[in-house]
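Justification of computing resources. Each target in the renewal requires a structure prediction run like the one illustrated here; the chain below, 462 residues long, is used simply to show the kind of job we budget for.
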Amino acid sequence: MKPILLFTLILLTTSTFGQINGTWHTSFSIMGNSNRLDMFVNNNPINPSISVTNPDSDKTKNLLMDKVKITDSTLSFFWTKTGISYEGKYSKTGDSLVGVMSQMDVKWEVNFTRHEHEKIVLKRPQEPKAPFAYPVEEILIQNGENVLGATLTLPLNAGSNYPIVVLASGSGAQDRNCELVGHKSFLVIADYFARNGIACLRFDDRGVGKSTGSFQTASLEDFASDVNTCVNYLVQDPRFAGNKIGVAGHSEGGMHALIAAKSNKKIQFIVELASVGTSGREVLAEQNYLIYKASGSSEEVGVWAKETITGICGILAANSADKAVEPLSKYIETRYAIAPKEFTDMTSVSQYKMGTIMMLNNDWGRQFTGFQAANYLKKIKVPVLAINGSKDIQVPPVSNQAGFAKSFSKKSLSQSKAIVVDGLNHLFQNCNTCTTSEYVELEETFSETVLKEMTVWIKGLH
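Resulting structure tokens:
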């Protein structure tokens, strides 16, 4: 009787789960990237399998998933190569799988259906499209052993004596458009400037796009060197002999701009967009507190994170890179031991320790945490416009605006200006929840209020 009972059980199992077999389709957007996936399910009761295909990519075809599990109501798998996992609930009506996909700490909704999906198109109404109504030049600029790929836009009907702005991007490897979560803020800025009488040069960061070199090993001084190289390229172009040339830096790019302007007297004005008016260590500490709070963590976690970063910065300042490893490790382990359970549930001590040391105990991290805006602002004699959004949780507006206002040099003070624009986040979008995760959800790329503010100020310089 045993073989018969087993055979009956297999038949029942196949009948119960059989509906899930076959191909499922989904389309979703994550971090500004639209994706489609086709999932083929083979619910063999002995050895079930799942394979996925991206219909828009030749590189993702019939890839077998790992750790496949199928029950009468759920389906899950793990994609080892990418670190992506999926857990979905199966509809008994046979028409959908509703679930969540995750990669490290990032989670997003992914629902599969039997019908094919169109690729999601993110709405970015401000993004300009070619052909453009103004001249656009694609150029390569040599900086030592590296080459910077760049785009120069020139305004129409502006005569010859128009201002020119070099754009400097913030943290992370960015292309010349400063593309982030589907938004191309530098493209929007360059287009607005060109249509309003201002030229603009934007460039790919090292190792990105058409630029060579290593982004990972570059320091703040290296990035400032790239800014200066772009400025000098414009200065040496005979077409721009009488033009005012300035730099506009977003976030960390504002730090690059100040470092560059301290040594390069050819820079005639600076725009600081959501940048640091205090110090790198203060911004990093405040940022940790605000981002954890905005993401739903408790006050206890926010305070713990802020205090921990402050202590880490102190160790970096007191020790060389090689001598800092041991005290950093011990300090982080000590802090982790008293961390709120809410935090330790999110990450292990080894992950937190490794991530923090790798990010900060290097030339870039040391220069960032040691950066003092006043050391540059007090020595820079050219006009500075500092703009922050009131809802920015990455570079807090109140403290940094105060830092700018009190540090403008006497020479620059008459034309310098520090303002906060209400309702804007770190990317200068009008925001609702004003969390970092909302950046991708907002259709606005860059506030027109800030575009106008920059344009009026730059064209009004004398």
